[in-house]
Amino acid sequence: xxxxxxxxxxxxxLAALGFxxxxxxxxxxxxxxxxxxxxxGLLTEVAVVPTPEAADVLARRLRGAGxxxxxxxxxxxxxxxxxxxxxANAKLLLS
Length: 95
Description:
Blueprint: H1 3-25, E1 44-49, H2 52-64, E2 69-74, E3 77-82, H3 87-94
Antiparallel strand pairs: 1-3, 2-3
């Protein structure tokens, strides 16, 4: 095997490896990340209150009813977040 054929074989192997990696990992169709801070993934906002004390009271009420909740402070307000399956029950409890 000559030096030229070794180089050509190396180029072919690297190109094949490149095509396989591009096929396996190159089609990334995930959404663009939200940098505004308004996307909470799976959680849905059910209430917005101005103080942390009010958020704690409402969160305790939801947790007491068996609803998993999360409190997030954004933009000067405290937001109560729950999973989509619990939105109707949470809004009913908070109204």
